[in-house]
């Protein structure tokens, strides 16, 4: 049973692991990024836009293709599910009408999995898309929040913690392009853009209140993450 | 390589619409004429610009040995050309280039007896260690064979397998010790076979060392020589291509053995650095690796002492003292030049094998428990 402030590696429940991000690491790929949170590390590469769309895809728009490569072993259903979730997430942040009838491939390679893998991959893919210059509406930041047995919310679990928790949620929030917005400019239905949820995947059992608490905590953490990401992208351009 | 090529305008979206990359006629002519006027110096890229991830994992299972070699362990190499390495690499079963690469490295390592297989034997005729090398190609800058070879050697040198001992009534019970109890052992590697690739062009017997991707697209023939530092030739592979006079081949062999010495030294230095860093990390935290799925009840039938509880320790524990206000962020911008150093990358990427120690532990324990079921070596158990 986990106490409120007693995580194995000494973090507080609200404290995500150390973040490390590098871009433009591969030479052949049009865009590449590596993203690591603690021991979880993901490498993403983007090729595109390439001519033509796949079958059954709308030729009026750009098509996004995600290839998920696990660290070892065959590609199975879990990997296909991750691909699908990532594809839908990326589709919602990209401007698909700029390059119609093209395909952009995102290849995600899992280097190490120590919990919160899908958010890490989404963050890496987003950074790689920026590196490749794919037109996007805004960026996305992802985080994992889990609910412990007694109902407290813990951020960014390790694999061991993920398995011990009652439930966890992967949340992806939008990250708007401008750091200082005039009030009311990016409101959607009266709420700021950042309050929306692009993607939410949950595992396990949690009550509605707990889920909303997760969302609140996750959004706060993502706001900080957005700042960091924005600063680093601006610094390097 | 010292040639600066006219680079294709990669930045614009339009050029990317061409799905297959062909060197433009201009580029081809440029390379050929430059080579003809001897502009390209035989300068080996000590650090190949492309890198690949290498994992040795899940191969450390106890399996039945091959019938004709009951005293030796087994080693298998799996090559996977990831689509991220090159736009022309397709997902799916490995194509012939991938297979050829795997086979060449396999020949170099196995045929030359670089790794001591007999030390991998646990119970003669019954149980041996099986090593599996997974090569993931991440970035194709040309000359994949040499780079993959270096990666495989580095991984083999930094690999640690759990120690096991025989016990029980008739000496038939095998106990696999977790890394906390006994330090894992390195593999015994006798020598390092280094692959050196040459490219031949159709104009005037031009030969280059370590061809880049562009040169590979233009060259008319290739030869890979696998030598070790003491000058012994482990393998030569020249599959077709333009005919090369004998004295050119001899020249290549001499060049190769010179380069092999330099590369061996580089690998050894890098491995040294990595091992030191790994050892110092072990001292800092008391427990080494983490078990994601090992449960405490998973015991082996025979006697085993030592800490049963697996402590989770974050390798960043000593570095993070931050609170949620200041996220310590290390942003590293690595420029796409030849400065990318494989040792650092190998360190990053080979480090996770620590984690696999415990993951594989579960598999090996299962293998021991179900010894009678004769678990197959290559089948991987998916951790849930």
Give a brief rundown of this model.
The complex is a heterodimer of chains A (237) and B (384). By secondary structure, chain A is α+β, with helices and mostly antiparallel strands.
List the topology elements.
The complex is a heterodimer of chains A (237) and B (384).
Chain A: E1 19-23, E2 31-37, E3 40-51, E4 63-69, H1 77-93, E5 102-112, H2 117-132, E6 139-147, E7 153-155, H3 159-164, E8 167-175, E9 187-188, E10 191-192, E11 199-204, H4 208-236
Parallel strand pairs in A: 4-5
Antiparallel strand pairs in A: 1-2, 2-3, 3-5, 6-7, 6-8, 8-11, 9-10
Chain B: H1 13-16, H2 25-36, E1 52-56, E2 61-63, E3 74-81, H3 96-111, E4 121-123, E5 127-137, H4 144-158, E6 160-161, E7 164-167, E8 173-176, E9 185-186, E10 194-200, E11 207-209, H5 213-218, E12 221-227, E13 233-237, H6 246-284, E14 329-333, H7 342-350, H8 353-369
Parallel strand pairs in B: 3-5
Antiparallel strand pairs in B: 1-5, 2-5, 4-5, 6-9, 7-8, 10-11, 10-12, 12-13
Helix pairs in contact in B: 4-6
GO biological process, one term (chain A): poly(A)-dependent snoRNA 3'-end processing
Domain Exoribonuclease phosphorolytic (chain A): 16-135
InterPro entries (chain A): ExoRNase_PH_dom1, ExoRNase_PH_dom2_sf, PNPase/RNase_PH_dom_sf, Ribosomal_Su5_D2-typ_SF, RNase_PH
């Amino acid at each position: 049973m986990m106490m409120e402030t007693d995580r194995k590696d000494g973090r507080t429940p609200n404290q995500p692991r150390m973040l490390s991000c590098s871009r433009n690491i591969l030479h052949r790929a049009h865009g590449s990024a590596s993203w690591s949170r603690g021991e979880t590390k993901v490498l993403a590469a983007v090729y595109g836009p390439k001519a033509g769309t796949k079958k059954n895809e709308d030729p009026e728009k750009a098509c996004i293709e995600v290839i998920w490569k696990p660290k070892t072993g065959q590609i199975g259903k879990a990997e296909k599910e991750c691909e699908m979730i990532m594809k839908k997430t990326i589709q919602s942040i990209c401007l698909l009408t700029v390059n119609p009838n093209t395909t952009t491939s995102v290849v995600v390679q899992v280097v190490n999995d120590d919990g919160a893998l899908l958010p890490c991959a989404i963050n890496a893919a987003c950074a790689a898309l920026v590196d490749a210059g794919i037109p996007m509406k805004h960026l996305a930041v992802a985080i994992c929040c889990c609910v412990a047995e007694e109902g407290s919310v813990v951020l960014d679990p390790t694999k061991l913690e993920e398995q011990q928790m009652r439930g966890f949620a992967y949340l992806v929030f939008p990250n708007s392009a401008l750091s200082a917005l005039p009030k009311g400019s990016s409101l959607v239905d009266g709420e700021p853009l950042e309050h929306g949820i692009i993607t939410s995947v949950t595992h396990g059992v949690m009550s509605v209140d707990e889920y909303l608490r997760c969302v609140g905590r996750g959004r706060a953490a993502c706001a900080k993450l957005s700042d960091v990401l924005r600063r680093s992208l601006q610094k390097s351009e | 390589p010292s040639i600066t090529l006219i680079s294709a305008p990669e930045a614009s979206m339009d050029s990317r619409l061409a799905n297959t990359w062909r060197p433009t006629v201009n580029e081809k002519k440029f390379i050929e004429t430059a080579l003809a006027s001897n502009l390209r110096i035989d300068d080996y890229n000590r650090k190949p610009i492309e890198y690949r991830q290498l994992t040795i994992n899940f191969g450390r299972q106890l399996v039945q040995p091959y019938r004709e070699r009951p005293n030796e362990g087994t080693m298998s190499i799996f090559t996977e050309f990831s689509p991220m390495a090159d736009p022309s690499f397709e997902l799916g079963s490995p194509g012939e280039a991938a297979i050829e690469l795997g086979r060449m490295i396999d020949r170099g390592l196995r045929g030359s007896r670089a790794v001591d297989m007999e030390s991998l034997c646990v119970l003669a005729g019954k149980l041996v260690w099986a090593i599996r090398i997974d090569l993931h190609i991440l970035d194709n800058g040309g000359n994949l064979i040499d780079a993959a070879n270096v990666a495989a050697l580095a991984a083999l040198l930094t690999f640690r397998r759990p120690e096991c001992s025989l016990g029980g009534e008739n000496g038939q019970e095998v106990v696999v010790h977790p890394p906390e109890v006994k330090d894992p052992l390195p593999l015994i590697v006798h020598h390092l076979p280094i692959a050196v690739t040459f490219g031949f062009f159709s104009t005037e017997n031009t030969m280059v060392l370590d061809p880049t991707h562009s040169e590979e697209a233009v060259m008319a023939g290739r030869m890979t020589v696998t030598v070790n530092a003491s000058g012994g030739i482990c393998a030569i592979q020249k599959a077709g291509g333009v005919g090369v006079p004998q004295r050119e081949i001899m020249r290549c062999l001499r060049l190769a053995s010179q380069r092999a010495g330099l590369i061996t030294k580089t690998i050894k230095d890098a491995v040294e650095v990595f091992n030191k860093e790994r050892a110092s990390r072990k001292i800092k935290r008391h427990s080494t690796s983490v078990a994601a799925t090992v449960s405490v009840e998973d015991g082996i039938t025979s006697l085993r002492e030592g800490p049963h509880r697996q402590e989770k320790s974050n390798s960043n524990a000593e570095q993070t003292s931050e609170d949620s206000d200041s996220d310590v962020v290390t942003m590293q911008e690595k420029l796409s030049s030849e400065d990318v150093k494989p040792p650092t990358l190998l360190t990053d990427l080979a480090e996770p094998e620590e984690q696999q120690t415990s993951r594989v532990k579960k598999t090996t324990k299962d293998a021991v428990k179900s010894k009678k079921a004769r678990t197959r070596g290559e089948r991987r158990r998916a951790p849930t």
